[in-house]
From TrEMBL:
Keywords: Hydrolase, Pyridine nucleotide biosynthesis, Pyridoxal phosphate. GO terms for biological process: anthranilate metabolic process; L-kynurenine catabolic process; L-tryptophan catabolic process to kynurenine; NAD+ biosynthetic process; quinolinate biosynthetic process. The gene is kynU. It comes from Hymenobacter cellulosilyticus. It catalyses: 3-hydroxy-L-kynurenine + H2O = 3-hydroxyanthranilate + L-alanine + H(+); L-kynurenine + H2O = anthranilate + L-alanine + H(+). Catalyzes the cleavage of L-kynurenine (L-Kyn) and L-3-hydroxykynurenine (L-3OHKyn) into anthranilic acid (AA) and 3-hydroxyanthranilic acid (3-OHAA), respectively. The modification N6-(pyridoxal phosphate)lysine is found at K246. Its EC number is 3.7.1.3. Belongs to the kynureninase family. This is Kynureninase. GO terms for cellular component: cytoplasm. One of its GO terms (molecular function) is kynureninase activity. HAMAP family: Kynureninase.
Amino acid sequence: MTSFQPTAEFAAELDAQDALRDFRNRFHIPLAPNGQPSVYFCGNSLGLQPKAARAAVEQEFDSWEKLGVEGHFHGTSPWMHYHETLSDSTARLVGAKPVEVVVMNNLTTNLHLLLVSFYQPTATRYKVLMEGGAFPSDQYALESQVKLHGLAPDEAIVELRPRAGEHTLRTEDILATIQELGDSLATVILGGVNYYTGQAFDMAAITRAGHAVGAMVGFDLAHAAGNLLLELHDWDVDFACWCSYKYLNSGPGGTSGVFVHERFANRPDLLRLAGWWGHDPADRFQMKKGFRPMAGAAGWQLSNAQIFPMAIHRAALALVDEAGGMPALRRKSEQLTAYLEYLVHRLELPAEVLEIITPAEPAARGCQLSMLVHQNGRQLFDFLAAAGVIADWREPNVIRLAPVPLYNSFGDVQRAGQVLAEWAGKAK
Ligand SMILES: Cc1ncc(COP(=O)(O)O)c(C=O)c1O
Ligand SMILES: Nc1ccccc1C(=O)C[C@H](N)C(=O)O
């Protein structure tokens, strides 16, 4: 990793050695203003379209066209059991048992459903710990959940903040806060990777610390699923949810994944919001009174499956499996991001101009690098876009670059580095 070079030849050599290089051809890559494929570093917001997605959806259009309601029972993949076809690949993705996962709804909806079960404050144990500056939807979800219990957000929600002069959280500080909160702490809910800084949290250590004080521990894995190696079962995480439209390339507004640890698999007493699709399938259609949840995460389902988003998701997850799953993706990802980091450091820009705030250790980040740009950040963002580098801008002054192992190449990273160097030359 120490012998990176900034040249196109060197990048081409890395691409030639890359076992995943052909997966790029399985995606539609948007074009840059010059008509060439762009350098798409925005998979942390919306992953690219797998070429297989359209046919997957068309297959369900065909079933609907030809079979109507009978599509629930006939056709290539009957809708009645469609969601079950996602369980194995989803379980592999997050390091879970199939009974621990289900695909349904959207992310914020699932966060609410899980908090109903896993944030049940009492008079003494009512605090919930989250990252300060978490993605706004998570903040709003938490605030409203707290209010639902008649509590004041300011009193119940504890936000973790970096130390003065630092941009990211120290694991030791997270663990110390959990310990300090002790038996006042009901629930810990953090991102697996923070959307703004790109910091990945030590989920195993945080879960252990939370459990040691008797709290529930869950994670919003929007920026972690398809990005990090996850071992949710072995880490003993209580609950988690994620979206599928970022690193899982399942399309805008795509369906969402849920994890509930096996120890809650047979806990019908655990409070939840219920719907018929979470009811025991043996008599779901008997139309009887009295909810009896299915075992596992499936028991949190409300509604019958969203076939069209799931069809895309299934095609997209198949690509992850075909590529060798997360271990293969993560190996390449670490190299891609390290190469990008090397190219940014080569610019030798003073921290007052531009600094990478994402942690340097691979274990503390996913693929994304967040650059804090203190001067003319918007201008740099526009400069990148004009040169065909699609990044994103997050207020007040961060540019996020996310090279994704399934469809980005080392050549992409080298080109982005080149554009940054041009900008830095101009900026002098
Ligand atoms: C951490 C996090 N939480 C929640 C959301 C919102 O998800 P959704 O719109 O699917 O509910 C996003 C991204 O949009 C996110 O990054
Ligand atoms: N779904 C979207 C729709 C429109 C605009 C952005 C999003 C995002 O996903 C933002 C992303 N969660 C982020 O980390 O900024």
